[in-house]
Recover the amino acids of this structure.
């Protein structure tokens, strides 16, 4: 089968289950129902690690710091002033909404939140990056100072943790299942697994998060009026189907979540630069985006998009060039008499398996025999962290701080000490990462990170793939929901339900 035909075939998916039985159901009378693929696991912002929990926590809790469109830190509920290399002052705004139990937010609450993160007994994954904080000094009801052990130019990037009430922190309150913050939404009840009832504090509107793992069932519920909103986690062909339905409105926005193909540089084959470059020239990323993703995304050349304040907009793409790929493989000693055989691990999600089969066919065109191995998420991710792979693909979600480069590429960050899962070791990369992290001048710091991204683009510990679009499917009449580039659910703070006669 011709490669383009194969991509089109992989993009096709039976939608008969949605074609019938989509009768009208009564709309929500008192709010909105938002269907999601996975349930939040932990509504304590100090402890949450899954994307859904972090997205819900953004709605439940206020933060010292937020981020602008270029991923630069900006004031959340406080203004920041650096009083010296080792001292940062924060002044809370006077108009902060109180906690959802009516008590005001004070500097002591901020101090208690961060002190608990620094307490080893809390076991917060934020503790490592915040261990530079020596002590926190409350100066009054609205002012506090962070004193550091050493200069940390990137401190503000790590101060986006939701603020908790000091009295409940000290009492050991279980925020995981009983969150209490000062964000735009608050918990109403958590009646059963898969159902989380919230209410919007400014107008009391009920918002229920309904977990529906199967995307076809999620779409059916939208068509039947059992839910009013879906966001992401939909195969592109299903998005196209929903776009054609008169009762549904589909909108999309450019995303920033970075998908990549990862290599094991400790492996005898994928550890060779010629092999990684051959694969980079053999994968037709543009065709995959057009046919499999139905153009719902844009090509990526680096972990950060060009509009990021430290983005590298001048990276030259690795062009699709099968002849060049074959030449590089021959240079590495592979060819028809000695074919290169590799394994590619992915999750068992049907769309990700289809993506893997397309990449498998494209690599076959240049003489690479690729074996696709799909596993449940836990097994797959466990193998990736343990280095049991030659190739794999994943997506970095919601990454804003350039600290990600240390976490993902520094030679000191090989698991379990970080996420350098491909065992990339480069003295030049380490020097750039260390120099950029210590550079206090923002312009020079950005220049160092751009140099690092050029080095990574050449060495290819990752083959950058694309940034998938953010997609919203809603019932006609739902208004005011704004898609976030990183997939956050912030639009629930502004969305309005359909008006019914």
């Amino acid at each position: 089968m011709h490669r383009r035909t194969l991509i089109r075939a992989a993009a096709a998916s039976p939608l008969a289950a949605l074609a019938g039985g989509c009768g009208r159901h009564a709309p929500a009378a008192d709010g909105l129902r938002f269907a999601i693929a996975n349930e939040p696991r932990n509504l304590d912002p100090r402890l949450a690690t899954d994307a859904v929990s972090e997205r819900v926590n953004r709605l439940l809790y206020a933060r010292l710091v937020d981020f602008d469109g270029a991923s630069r830190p900006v004031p959340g509920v406080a203004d920041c002033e650096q009083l010296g290399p080792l001292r940062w002052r924060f002044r809370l705004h006077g108009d902060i909404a109180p906690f959802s139990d009516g008590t005001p937010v004070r500097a002591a609450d901020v101090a208690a939140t961060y002190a608990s993160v620094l307490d080893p007994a809390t076991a917060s994954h934020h503790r490592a990056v915040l261990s530079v904080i020596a002590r926190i000094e409350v100066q009054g009801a609205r002012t506090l100072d962070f004193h550091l052990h050493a200069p940390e130019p990137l401190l503000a990037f790590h101060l986006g943790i939701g603020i908790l009430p000091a009295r409940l922190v000290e009492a050991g309150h279980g925020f995981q299942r009983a969150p209490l913050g000062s964000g735009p939404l608050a918990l109403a009840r958590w009646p059963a697994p898969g159902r989380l009832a919230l209410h919007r504090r400014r107008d009391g509107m009920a918002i229920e998060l309904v977990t529906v793992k199967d995307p076809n069932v999620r779409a059916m519920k939208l068509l039947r009026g059992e839910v009013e909103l879906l966001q992401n986690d939909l195969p592109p062909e299903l998005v196209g189907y929903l776009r054609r339905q008169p009762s549904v409105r589909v909108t999309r926005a450019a995303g920033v979540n970075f998908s990549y193909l990862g290599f094991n540089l400790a492996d005898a084959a994928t550890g060779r630069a010629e092999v990684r470059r051959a694969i980079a020239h053999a994968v037709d990323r543009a065709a995959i985006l057009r046919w499999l993703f139905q153009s719902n995304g844009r090509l990526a050349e680096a972990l950060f998009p060009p509009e990021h304040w430290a983005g590298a907009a001048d990276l030259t793409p690795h062009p699709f060039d099968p002849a060049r790929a074959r030449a590089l493989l021959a240079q590495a000693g592979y060819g028809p008499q000695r074919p290169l055989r590799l394994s590619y691990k992915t999750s068992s999600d049907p769309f990700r398996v289809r993506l893997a089969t397309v990449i498998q066919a494209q690599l076959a065109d240049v003489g690479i025999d690729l074996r696709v191995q799909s596993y449940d998420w836990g097994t797959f991710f466990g193998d990736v962290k343990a280095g049991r792979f030659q190739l794999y693909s994943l997506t970095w979600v919601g990454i804003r701080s350039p600290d990600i480069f240390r976490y993902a590429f520094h030679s000191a960050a090989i698991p379990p000490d970080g996420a350098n899962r491909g065992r990339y070791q480069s003295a030049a990369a380490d020097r750039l990462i260390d120099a950029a992290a210590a550079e206090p001048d923002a312009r020079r710091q950005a220049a160092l990170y751009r140099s690092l991204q050029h080095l990574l683009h050449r060495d290819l510990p990752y083959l950058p793939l694309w940034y998938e679009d953010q997609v919203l499917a809603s019932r006609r009449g739902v208004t005011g929901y704004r898609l976030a580039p990183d997939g956050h659910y912030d639009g629930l703070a502004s969305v309005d339900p359909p008006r019914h006669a």
